[in-house]
Amino acid sequence: MLGTIGTTLLHHRRLLAVVLIGIVGLVVSLTFVRFSAPDLALTQLSVEVVTIVLMLLALYYLPQSSPKESSRARVGRDILLAAGIGGGMAFTTYALLTSPFSTISDFYLQQSVPGGGGSNVVNVILVDFRGFDTLGEIAVLAMAALGAHALLDQLRVLAPKHDGAGRLWAQEPHPLFLKMLMQPLLPLALAVSVYIFLRGHNLPGGGFVAGLVTGVALILQSLAGGLTFAENRLPRNYPPLLGLGLAFAAGIGLVSWFFSRPFLTSTHGHFHLPLLGNIELASVIIFDLGVYLVVVATVLLILTELGKLHKGEQI
Amino acid sequence: MEAMLAIAIGLLSSCGVYLMLRARTFPVILGLTLLSYAVNLFLFASGRLTINAPPIISAEASHYTDPIPQALVLTAIVIGFGMTAYIVTLALRGLSESGDDHVDMTVESAENDKEGEPS
Amino acid sequence: MMSFFTLHGPILPVLIPFVSSIVLLLAAGRHPAMQRGIAAFSTLLLLAASAHLLRLTDYLPPLAYALGEWAPPFGIVLVADRLAALGVMLTAILAAAALLYASAGFDRKGRHFHAIFQLQLVGINGAFLTGDVFNLFVFFEVMLLASYILLAHGGGLDKSRSGFAYVTLNLAGSAVFLIALGLIYGTLGTLNLADIAIQLQSVSAGEASLVRLAGALLFTVFLLKAAVLPLSFWLPHAYAAAGAPVAALFAIMTKVGIVAMLRVEVIAFDPAAATQDLLGGWLIIAALATIAVAALGVLTAKKLQSLAAWLVLSSAGVLLLLPPLANSAVTAAGLYYLVQSAITGAAIFLLSGLIAQSRGQTGDKLLASATAVPVKLKIGFLLLAATAAGLPPFSGFIGKLMLLSAVSETPMAALIWTVILLSGLLTTIALAKAGSRLFWESPADMKTVAATLATEATPRICLRQTLAGFGLIAVSLLLLIFARPVSDFTGRTAAQLHQPEHYIKAVIPDPDATHRVTRP
Predict the structure, then answer these.
(1) How far is C453 from chain B (nearest CA, A)?
(2) Helices and strands (H and E) in chain C: how many
(3) Local confidence band at A231 (pLDDT 50, 70, 90 cut-offs)
(4) Domain hosting residue A167, numbered range
(5) What is the pLDDT of residue A8?
(6) SS3 C56
């Protein structure tokens, strides 16, 4: 809460504000942990990391501080308006939280294992019960990436040579320390993301978080190794990858048409595989794989486009 | 517990609204982020607050928290992330084309501003 | 055994553009001609699927399509009734014209135009068809993000500037939408529209105020999308800044807000005692104020495209009368007006693009220009202006006449009549002035004329663009010739909508079977 106030008061000093907003995000994810929402906490945390990296990259080009230009009357009016809305929100929340309600949610708890084939109910809702929402959601992500790509395509911003206080930006682009650290860390991070992905149907995790972890690991790698280093090793053309992810998710939904079932009908069963033993597989894992691919492609596309901007000259 | 969360949501949303009313793109983006925290917490709370009962089916657990709001908030977080990413690039684009990061409704006022302040 | 196309009919208008956007992405960066081909093929399929759905809904009760085969209200359901089918059909027609116009070169001005265009159609059609309020939120977001990107397509200062404000405003709208959804779920325990309608019947006194707040917030969001005063300041700027084909497609977007509002009001909120009086006289006043401001905007516009944007706002104002009146006869007339105003609005956007192109540097500014405008464009403008102003015998006149006679039974009839007729008069004056400026006035200073004529190459207009513009004009004339069958259909649409029990029964046949628990 203090962080929130801090962010508001300090929004003129932009770097500090970004750090503080990161702290607020952290507190939000701790709140999710406290109130029995591990999936949300994981997601909030990983989104937070990517958002902060994004804002810092953008801040490199934007002015470092906001000039104070609002008149006193305007500030007063805005504070009044903001306080009114905040008070209304607090009151409404309290009124809502202290009254009981009757809900359909028991169905999901009962049907998650027999009907959806997974014990993490939130994940089963996302990929199965309400999979159509998730399809729209990854379409939004893919569009955000495409939109950023289209906007930044021909754009070259002159990067500032000095920071706000007139100090020079460091010219060695790739800190040795980070480089050393990332070499063992990258395979580890990738392994973690595979693990998070696979367990998602039964324990907190899933395609979205796994995709963000992979994306962040690869971005860190390119920060450590330099853009040219990364460009030589990563695929260059992300839009088809976005298409592939969407194709996985929509494709598995279309398969159900061949069984005269509605779009996105899922199935699951036990299979006996050599070495791995008896495992349970659900068709929605393909759907989740599509989510994973879209997320990885989105993060990489946006962040590398932003990183590429300053290849031009400095002023 | 309920009162504390309610106050936190109220505070987050008033700070978010205040920042959104600023004239520069960067505080507006910060404000949108704070507002989305508040809204996500509110949507999450619509399933009421439960401690130590994650919605993961197991033999030991006796009761579970409401899973629907969690799934909705997850979707909302992801959509919010996409929107934030896009609006950040939009702000950068505006910067490169006009030289400052003012928020304007019209081109006319943008031109007036340029006359007013040397860039 | 239902046929494949009947069974899957409701989802085809969403899936066809979705799949084609995937194919377009997989082929990204290669063969621009192939991209156009895929987009064109998909839009033709969409036209066919929409026509099929329109026919199906005309003789069948509302079709419910349970995604993932989860029974409503647990899974997401698409509901194709006549209103949804009408919206989807209208979208397909506008999309075909906009795409044809854009394929003359506009689509090459930036990346990913075709993929985003198809996703825009996914969002609009999904919003028309879905029967779940959270899913409606998701499709609104798909629609809005696509519209931001299309708005910025091609770049330019103008677009980024009005783009940022437009995006910020809509993101704030999305936040309000989510708060409303939280309140709805937190009180009624469901997100399915039909189930909401059932639950609203038995709201306790303690919950009533929270439910009313939820409804008020939800309607605020729809009003923002529908651009009612005072939430309308974004529309003229945003629409005037978009490229002509994009603006033509946007002509349907304010209608999405109105249709969503009409549906939620008539099916869920109006029949329930607790929320019946939520929309009332205040919204009628706001709608009339929107019409009045839009008429002034039309009078003072300096460019033809901004004039068209103000016209879109004016028709949005007229259509906003439908939800608060919630009356079958008014809805029937209003839906005819909706169809013809969307077509006419889109046609004016395309035509203003054509006129701008033929006048070289002067563009679509309402000033005299040295270059003469081709006769066919003059005729096109004349037809559209007469339709938009509501002059007899054009379809705009029929739409307004039907609406005026339908509202004559309602309490505020005199006021509504006065405002609509005055706005029609002002629009006529403005359009006549614009036409004479554009086509017949010659610049005072002949020296500059010679100079511009010498420097400017003869502008070329692509056949596809002309075809797109005049295609829509032809549709608008068809609406006049077939006024009877079309208004009969909107009559049947309104009748179906105003009997919400059909809709509810199609989605949830047995409300008592839904298992509920009470949570503290």
Answers:
(1) 29
(2) 23, 3
(3) low
(4) 103-311
(5) 58
(6) helix
